[in-house]
Specification:
alpha+beta, 35% helix, 8 helices
């Protein structure tokens, strides 16, 4: 199915290491993967013919149409290896193709434009997010995402993949960064006894900063999920009231 869609599917050998980690090794001749990444080679049914494969990966490359790469359609992806953080990010995430990994989630997207002009060097293929101990990897290319194999599960297949412009994709990336910054700031304080005051202030800040109520609700849901806050319903009630008060010109908690 993925091959018919025009995706480069890579056979992978999984090697268990002494530290309980698993090394992922592509079953492909040295140098060939570069040709795949740069749109010079379509692997076709090669992955299905490789008997030693333990898993299969989708390469982040242009999609192939009529036996040639379509540089106006690029597969790109986001990877989070922290299960709880990945679940929180998923609340913000545009609905798209998603895979459960051994430690978190992969999300795949199609960029509907030629993005080659943005590739200056190997580092320009990655737009990772790092906030202290939190990290989310964002790739525009030169990467593969293992999708089928032991410990991996396709939750939403390629049929549901979202199509975005590069600008929209980077805006999504920036929303995830804001969530990581928010969780990092709140982590020492978001505990029972403090949560109500934090919630009032946070929702006031959202309302006064012209963040849409719909967007603010996603952030509140994501924060509650990350910190296992079981009072989500009351948080959303406060959010509704806060936005209504701002609309009426009344004072709310948060920044002045």
């Amino acid at each position: 199915k993925w091959i018919e869609y025009g995706l480069n599917v890579l056979p992978i050998r999984l090697i268990e290491k002494d530290d309980n980690n698993i090394e992922k090794s592509p079953i492909i001749k040295k140098g060939v993967l570069t040709d795949v990444y740069e749109g010079r080679l379509f692997l076709g049914s090669y992955a299905l013919e490789e008997e030693e494969a333990d898993a299969y990966a989708i390469c982040l490359t242009p999609i192939w149409r009529d036996n040639k790469p379509n540089f106006e359609e690029w597969i790109v992806g986001i990877d989070c290896d922290d299960q709880r953080l990945a679940e929180s990010i998923d609340i913000l995430m545009t609905d798209t193709s998603k895979q459960k990994t051994k430690r978190g989630y992969h999300w795949l997207f199609i960029i509907n434009e030629d993005i080659r002009k943005h590739f200056k060097d190997d580092e320009s293929y990655a737009k990772h997010i790092k906030v202290n101990d939190f990290k989310v990897e964002v790739y525009l290319g030169k990467r593969y995402f293992v999708t089928i194999g032991k410990g991996y599960e396709v939750i939403k297949d390629i049929d549901s993949i979202a199509r975005l412009t590069l600008k929209e994709f980077m805006e999504l990336r920036n929303k995830i960064e804001k969530l990581l910054m928010l969780i990092d700031i709140l982590k020492p304080f978001y505990k029972e006894g403090n949560r109500n005051n934090i919630d009032f202030a946070l929702e006031g800040i959202f309302a006064k900063s012209n963040v849409s109520k719909e967007e603010a609700e996603k952030y509140i849901r994501a924060v509650c999920h990350y910190f296992s806050d079981n009072e989500l319903k009351s948080r959303l009630t406060v959010l509704e009231r806060t936005y209504k008060r701002v609309e009426e010109g009344k004072e709310v908690a948060g920044i002045s």
